[in-house]
Design goal:
globular; single chain; 2 domains; four-stranded parallel beta sheet; alpha/beta; Rossmann fold; five-stranded parallel beta sheet
């Protein structure tokens, strides 16, 4: 049976820590040739820096051969039906890494694929980002279990996957969002159910100050994601007061670390210079995309 990673809950809670441990091993210099002789098809409908680079280099570090396709080359669901692309890629490659808009597209792709399919971002979830995030938290705190993580901003795909990951490892995620931009109820309830056996929780609040109080980690993301550009002006108004800056970090726990999945918009969700604040681990977090995804491909193959 082929295993896919379309949403974070596709792996069981007790599988997360071993996967993170493997990522940390690979980062330390442990060598894996899990993808020797294998080809990894990378198909993106959205622009990418970290995701493309990390999957490409990660595949090569495992001995594999990455092949990248831009939107214009394939026209997923437009120039060629999704099911047909999945069938062709399954005949010629060993893993498919898909970055698309609608989550239904990757679900259709996986339904018609006979190789592992990895979600490199959809409008519903960004599970690979959550793997890198929890690897980073593990490196900084020693464990996610019992950690208090504040996410300030839009209850988007990044927040949804982070909720499952943190709760599944026994941590506590507090999401602060303005009305109308909170986590979808199904993700809030789903993440709490997923983390029940681990003792993890996800809570939604509206106050950034409430969220960051005693937080070990403060995390934020852009207010306007790709595909939402028409809402930019509206969102700038809605998220006024949700900027993460040194003053907000000062209200968190001593030793707090700041995270951002990048790219950032200084002057909006973060203050200018915050990425380079001594408390920021955003670039460690970015690097960990490489190692977490390498560990994931190592597992799936």
């Amino acid at each position: 049976m082929v295993s896919h990673f379309l949403k974070f809950s596709d792996i069981a809670p007790d599988e997360i820590q071993p996967l993170l441990n493997r990522a940390i091993e690979l980062k330390s210099g442990v060598v894996s040739n899990a993808l020797a002789g294998k080809s990894i098809a990378i198909l993106f409908e959205k622009p990418s820096l970290r995701t493309k680079l990390s999957f490409w280099v990660g595949a090569e570090k495992l001995g594999g051969h990455p092949v990248h396709f831009s939107p214009e080359e394939v026209g997923l669901g437009k120039r060629e039906p999704v099911a047909d692309v999945a069938q062709v890629m399954s005949r010629m490659s060993d893993i498919a890494v898909i970055r698309t808009f609608a989550h239904s597209t990757i679900e259709e792709f996986a339904l018609n694929a006979s190789i592992p399919v990895i979600n490199a971002l959809t409008d519903a979830e960004h599970p690979c980002q959550a793997l890198a995030d929890t690897q980073t938290i593990t490196e900084q705190l020693g464990s996610v279990s019992g950690a208090r993580v504040a996410f300030v901003g839009d209850g988007n795909n990044v927040a949804a996957s982070l909720g499952y990951a943190v709760a599944g490892l026994g941590g506590h995620l507090i999401v602060a969002s303005p009305d109308g931009y909170t986590l979808p109820v199904e993700d809030l309830e789903g993440a709490n159910a997923y983390g029940a056996t681990s003792g993890g929780t996800v809570t939604q609040v509206t106050s950034p100050q409430e969220a960051v109080s005693n937080a070990d980690i403060v995390y934020t993301d852009v207010w306007t994601s790709m595909g939402q550009e028409a809402e930019t002006a509206k969102r700038l108004v809605a998220f006024a007061g949700y900027q993460v800056n040194p003053a907000l970090l000062d209200q968190a726990a001593a030793g707090v670390k700041f995270m951002h999945d990048l790219p950032a918009h200084p002057g909006e969700e973060i203050s200018h210079g915050l990425l380079y604040d001594p408390r920021s681990v955003a670039f460690d977090q970015a690097e960990n995309r490489l190692w977490a995804q390498a560990a994931l491909m190592d597992k799936l193959i």
